[in-house]
């Protein structure tokens, strides 16, 4: 029976990872996987996380099951982090999930339960894993223009034109800050326009926040949430702690549900738990406990914010260094990089160019030319700039 299973395409992110690890060249450069790196190319554990783990090890009394909603304390802390002005909103509920991808899948399962084969609109290009998560949940995908490859910037006019075709009851996924892969975000005024348009179309926003604090800062990176909430009484939010707390392999995230009435919110919340029970049953505890300890301690929270701010500043400075190096070699060709923000830059490279970078230079970049800015450092930046200008 098993021999009848057909082969499916490999996830592009995993494919780049496998190619990088299989390359025997000692000077190979990984700019594909989206993790924060230091100058030595390592992804260290945050000092605040280490301290929280020491506290957890000393005080933890049980490893009993959490239940499908996960850690109550973690869920409360995430609400307070994202909604400090109204953390007691009775129309808002939070569920801990296995990473941001887990939250996305639960959101997809909810939409499919609400209406089998619901339509979900993704940006073009999307985060590649969005394309596998939501069809696996039974949803039908549509796309809206987002990135102008000729200008290297947000195609806002095209975005509005396509979103004007959204039908009542459709869901629209919006990456909140630090768009993956493009590194292009709407301005606050543009977010306002999008919120009004989707409200007029009767669409359900699905908000994806994976890089909180790494684009501008914690407060400014959550501003789009308030703009959406101002115009929509119903929305879902998928949150990841992977980059914000450096908890990549702890798989810690959250799904937030906001409804028009408290009773509706609780009903949707209960159904989300039903979907979870039919899937992974309950999330792991360690990462959530670490986040709870950090956000519950004034000292650790301050230390964590300092580390997060330093990471954000490093990403910004590295982007400027890349831009300067490229413009020294080819003035004006890469000026669009300055307008991109967050962990990624998108260079609109084709498969032949990506293959050239791999084969000739041992440089590994994500599909479409997505570069992890954090993977650049003083030791490899000039070599990467030379290779890109050569294309």
Report on the structure:
By secondary structure, the protein is α/β, with parallel strands linked by helices. 44% of the residues lie in helices and 15% in strands. The protein has 14 helices and 13 strands. The strands form four sheets. A seven-stranded mixed β-sheet has the order 2-10-9-8-7-3-4, sandwiched between helices. Strands 1-12 form a two-stranded parallel sheet. Helix 12 crosses helix 14. The longest helix has 32 residues. The radius of gyration is 21 Å and the shape is globular.
Strand order within the widest beta sheet: 2-10-9-8-7-3-4
Tell me the series of helices and strands, N- to C-terminal. HEHHEHEHEEEHEHEHHEEHHHEHEEH
Percentage of residues in strands = 15-25%
Computed over alpha carbons, the radius of gyration is 21 Å
- Helix/strand-derived class? alpha/beta
State the helix count: 14
**Could you give a short account of the major beta sheet?**
7 strands, mixed
Shape: globular
Report helical residue fraction: 40-55%
Number of strands: 13
């Amino acid at each position: 029976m098993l021999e009848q299973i057909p082969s499916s395409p490999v996830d592009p992110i995993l494919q780049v990872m496998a190619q990088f690890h299989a390359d025997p060249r000692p000077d190979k450069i990984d700019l594909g996987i989206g993790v924060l790196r230091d100058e030595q190319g390592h992804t260290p554990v945050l000092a605040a996380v280490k301290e929280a783990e020491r506290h957890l090890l000393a005080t933890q009394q049980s490893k009993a099951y959490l239940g499908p909603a996960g850690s109550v304390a973690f869920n409360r802390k995430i609400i307070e982090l994202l909604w400090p002005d109204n953390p007691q909103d009775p129309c808002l509920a939070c569920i801990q999930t296995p990473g941001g991808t887990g939250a996305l899948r639960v959101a997809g399962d909810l939409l499919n339960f609400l209406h089998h084969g619901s339509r979900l609109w993704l940006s073009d290009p999307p985060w590649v894993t969005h394309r596998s998560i939501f069809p696996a949940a039974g949803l039908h995908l549509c796309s809206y223009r987002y990135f102008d490859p000729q200008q290297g910037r947000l195609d806002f006019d095209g975005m509005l034109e396509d979103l004007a075709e959204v039908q009542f009851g459709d869901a629209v996924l919006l990456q909140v800050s630090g768009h993956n892969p493009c590194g292009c975000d709407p301005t606050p005024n543009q977010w306002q326009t999008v919120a009004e348009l989707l409200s007029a179309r009767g669409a359900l926003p699905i908000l994806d926040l994976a890089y909180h604090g790494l684009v501008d800062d914690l407060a400014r990176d959550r501003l789009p949430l308030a703009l959406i909430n101002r115009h929509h009484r119903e929305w879902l939010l998928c949150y990841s702690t992977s980059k914000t707390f450096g908890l990549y392999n702890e798989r810690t995230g959250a799904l937030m549900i906001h409804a028009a009435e408290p009773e509706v919110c609780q009903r949707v919340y209960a159904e989300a738990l039903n979907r979870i029970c039919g899937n992974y049953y309950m999330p792991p505890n360690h990462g959530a406990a670490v986040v709870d300890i950090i956000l519950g301690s004034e000292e650790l929270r301050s230390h964590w914010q300092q580390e997060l701010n330093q990471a954000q500043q490093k990403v910004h400075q590295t982007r400027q260094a890349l831009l300067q190096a490229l413009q020294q070699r080819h003035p004006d060709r890469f000026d669009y990089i300055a307008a991109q923000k967050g962990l990624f830059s998108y260079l609109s490279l084709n498969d032949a160019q990506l293959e050239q970078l791999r084969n000739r230079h041992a440089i590994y970049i994500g599909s479409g030319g997505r570069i992890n800015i954090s993977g650049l450092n003083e030791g490899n930046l000039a070599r990467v700039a030379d290779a890109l200008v050569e294309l």
